[in-house]
Amino acid sequence: MIYLELFLAFLEVGCFSFGGAYGAIPLIRDVVITHGWLDDEALTYMIAVSESTPGPIMVNMATYVGSSEAGVLGAVVATFAVVLPAFLIILLIMVILKNAMKNQYFRAVLRGLKPCVTGIILATGVYMVITNCIESKTISIHALIITAIIIVSKGLYPIIKKKKLSPIMLIIISAISGMIVYGI
Predict the structure, then answer these.
(1) pTM for the full model?
(2) Mapped to the 3 state alphabet, what secondary structure does 123-180 carry?
(3) pLDDT digits (tens, 9 = 90+) for 134-143
(4) How many Cα neighbours within 13 Å face the side chain of 35?
């Protein structure tokens, strides 16, 4: 029964996750919390780990949850389920994309999805900042300090270096900040 639950839950994530991994986080959160597989704190840690390991967040999360709930076979089932829709959609798109891109309505739908995905990502980021900076109805100074370091780094780096801060450097800055602020 757990294999079917994992398959259906992560198939849902795979089917309705538009805009990449960050757009999928709210859906992943809903699925894992509804099934009781992770709580908010564990999910936040897993997002951080998934972000700092190779591979897409959805695949890493599915593999972790599947493994923790049903071992290696559970990891395989959850991972297969989360990538199956994208695989099938890409195959379908390869067949019809040439004609579809000529259609003005199709192009309009794609343009309409962009702001939606941007809003989902922004809302998720704001939610994560708020929930991590406010613990048990008290403000976490440590989390606020790390958040401020990340924001300042992201804002000042392009001014100083005249180029964007890479995600890898942002992860390294976050990790070092966490070690310093929370103590090694």
Answers:
(1) 0.56
(2) HHHHHHHHHHHEECCEECHHHHHHHHHHHHHHHHHHHHHCCCCCHHHHHHHHHHHHHH
(3) 877 788 888 8
(4) 21
